[in-house]
Design a protein that fits this description.
Blueprint: H1 17-24, H2 32-45, E1 50-62, E2 65-77, H3 84-90, H4 110-116, E3 119-127, E4 135-140, H5 141-145, E5 156-157, H6 162-167, E6 175-183, H7 191-196, H8 199-205, H9 207-212, E7 216-223, E8 226-227, E9 232-233, E10 258-260, E11 271-278, E12 281-292, H10 320-326, E13 331-335, E14 338-343, E15 357-363, H11 368-371, H12 381-385, H13 391-394, H14 401-410, H15 419-440, H16 446-468, H17 474-479, H18 484-498, H19 503-516, E16 520-525, E17 533-538, E18 541-547, H20 551-561, H21 569-595, H22 600-622
Parallel strand pairs: 1-7, 13-15, 16-18
Antiparallel strand pairs: 1-2, 2-6, 3-4, 3-6, 4-5, 7-8, 7-9, 10-12, 11-12, 12-15, 13-14, 17-18
């Protein structure tokens, strides 16, 4: 049907073309780089192996000075091109083709929507039998506003201009050229600067295509019809830092900076798959996880010289590769091998440690509605809304997790299919990653090292004193006949194999202990036991491991040691009160253990152990003989 026209010649369109286009210009593209990504999506969908992005600048007089400003942006590809009917539809807002699982695009709005968000004039040439046989059409906002055009102009024969032929390095017998002119929403000026600002984003969004060699993306600044300095070919920017080569600064430009993080149950290390049933079909959501290699968190890397001005105490986060990782914090959402968003809302505020992990969640286009994928492919609203989700806070009184999910199903809650995935991320994967990251720095954290050294020295004095007084222990027996090398090997193996410290940190801790003749060492670790601490008895070394999984760690040690630098007096007083309360509860727990112990002779043995521990405590704390 055509438009309904009244007797006075007016019509009753639901919306007018001019208002639609003007409204859609504010469609939420974060910046020009994201708008460009829509054009690259179309090129990839057209099976292009080369996509060329041109930023063309011209001289502009500003007072007495002449500057250069970008006036044209173009994307040229060697894809399969479009026949005239398809070309005309491509410039229509919402082609209505629906979701094609083989395509990146969603609703046929990407080309006009992204283009008109940046410019007021869009021209498109496309050809299927040589650039000399190209067909051309366009959209012009001024013509639309003036009522000169209501429909996309019918494509006309128009050979590809020589200007673009000369700039191209891989012009094909088939292809498409999209040109933006009358740029009024582009904030950048120089051509090289314009493309430089897209480098990291384009490399990250299309990292899988670039890494696999499926597409080459050439970014070329142009001045007066010639490509100038600043040209580059996009390289992968991998937030999981598992690919190589990438844009990561040396020494990690040609080798992975991270390693797969495994929970121990995956068939493929670092990869977990979640089946989701949607509209009667089964689909898989793939989660990939990574964690920094220990050497990435040191100021120098094995086999590399120390950089000028860098020492062993330098924070790796301030070095080039650490700064690169800071810009890649969050969970990467990937759809059809193309990143939608790097969602930082899953990270803990601005904790510098968060830069040292990577997680990618990949899903097929069939799950767009479940994830809440936006039309401009810049995010997934449903998934993002579930960051830091606590199902218990949303459950009704006494409701089980199963009952909670059944209630969501009754109300057709859009987040239900993602609940298991979200809880895996929040309650299992991320906590495990953060524990491992903390373990990597055991013995190297400057804030507590002096205090740990003091405690180790005092404990060593007590151990030596008791040994000299004839109170020998297992560690003393093991030391008899043990060489320095066997002690070193035993301690390193305990730290690396039982407590998962990296080799370099363990070697450093052991060398320091041997050099200072320390007989005691304190570390924190994650152990699957109800005990709040455990011990290692080794030749000449009494090692105590405080279990960070036990609530006592969070309520006792963490309260005292993880104190913010800007903590005020009231905060410090509150921390001391909490520790005092926790210590009293700890003693009450022992008392109740004695109370519940049967028969009486067992209770008496525990009481004897309590009194014996008290004597040892007096010796270690006050330095007095245990039998005084």
């Amino acid at each position: 049907m055509g438009d309904i026209v009244t007797s006075d010649g007016s019509n009753y369109r639901i919306v007018s073309p001019s208002l639609t286009v003007k409204a859609m210009r504010d469609s939420g593209y974060k910046n020009t780089a994201y708008a460009l990504a829509e054009l690259i999506d179309n090129s990839i969908d057209a099976k292009a192996t080369l996509v060329e992005v041109f930023a063309c600048e011209n001289p502009v007089k500003v007072g007495a000075r002449t500057n250069h400003r970008v006036e044209t942006i173009a994307v040229l590809d060697n894809g399969h091109g479009m026949e005239p009917p398809q070309l005309r539809r491509a410039l229509k807002y919402g082609d209505g083709q629906g979701v094609d699982p083989a395509r990146i695009g969603r609703f046929g709005m990407g080309l006009p929507n992204s283009s008109m968000s940046q410019c007021t004039r869009l021209d498109v040439w496309s050809w299927t039998n040589g650039a000399g046989n190209a067909m051309h059409t366009y959209l012009d906002l001024k013509e639309i506003e003036a009522g000169l055009i209501d429909d996309v102009p019918e494509p006309t024969y128009d050979p590809l201009p020589d200007y673009w032929r000369d700039l191209s390095e891989g012009l094909g017998d088939t292809g498409t050229l999209v040109v933006w002119t009358k740029l009024d929403k582009v904030n950048w000026y120089g051509a090289a600067a314009t493309l430089k600002n897209t480098a990291e984003l384009i490399g990250r969004v299309y990292r899988h295509y670039l890494h696999d060699g499926r597409v080459d993306i050439r970014m070329a600044p142009v001045r007066e019809g010639k490509v100038v300095d600043g040209e580059y070919h996009a390289v992968p920017n991998d937030p999981l830092y598992l690919m190589a080569p990438t844009s990561t600064p040396a020494p990690f430009s040609d080798r992975p900076m991270f390693m797969p993080f495994s929970m121990g149950s995956e068939s493929e290390p670092g990869v977990t798959r979640f089946p989701v049933f949607h509209e009667g079909k089964k689909h898989n959501i793939t989660v990939r996880a990574s964690i920094a290699r220990p050497e990435a968190r040191r100021a120098n890397v094995e086999g590399q010289p120390w950089p000028d001005g860098i020492s062993r105490t330098t924070d790796p986060g301030t070095l080039p590769w650490g700064k690169h990782a800071r810009r890649n914090v969050g969970i990467s959402l990937v759809r059809q091998s193309r990143e939608l968003d790097l969602d930082a809302s899953w990270a803990i505020g601005y904790d510098p440690t968060e830069r040292w992990w990577g997680i990618e969640v990949e899903f097929p286009p069939e799950l767009d509605t479940i994830f809440g994928v936006t039309n401009n492919k810049q995010g997934a609203t449903v998934f993002s809304s579930l960051a830091h989700f606590d199902w218990k806070a949303h459950a009704e009184a006494g409701e089980s997790f199963k009952g909670f999910k059944e209630r969501l199903a009754e109300f057709s809650d859009p987040g239900l299919p993602l609940i298991d995935l979200v809880l895996y991320l929040e309650e299992k994967l991320l906590p495990a990653i953060r524990r491992q990251l903390k373990q990597q720095t055991v013995g190297t954290r400057k804030s507590n090292k002096r205090h740990d050294d003091d405690v180790a020295s005092r404990a060593t004095d007590a151990v030596k004193r008791r040994s000299e007084e004839g109170y020998t222990g297992k560690t003393d027996e093991l030391e008899e006949g043990a060489t320095t090398e066997t002690k070193r090997q035993e301690q390193v193996e305990a730290l690396t194999q039982r407590h998962h410290l990296d080799e370099d940190t363990a070697q450093s801790m052991v060398e320091e202990a041997l050099e200072k003749d320390l007989r005691a060492r304190w570390i924190s670790g994650f152990q699957d036991t109800s005990a709040f601490f455990s011990i290692d008895l080794m030749a000449g070394m009494l090692q105590v491991i405080f279990n960070e999984k036990h609530p006592l760690h969070a309520q006792l040690l963490a309260v005292l040691e993880d104190v913010p630098e800007d903590a005020d007096v009231d905060d410090l007083r509150d921390r001391l009160n909490r520790v005092a309360e926790t210590f009293k509860l700890l003693l009450f727990s022992w008392a109740r253990m004695e109370d519940e112990t049967y028969p009486d002779r067992d209770r008496e043995r525990i009481a004897d152990a309590r009194r014996e521990w008290g004597r040892y405590a007096r010796d270690f704390v006050d330095g007095k003989a245990s039998d005084a």
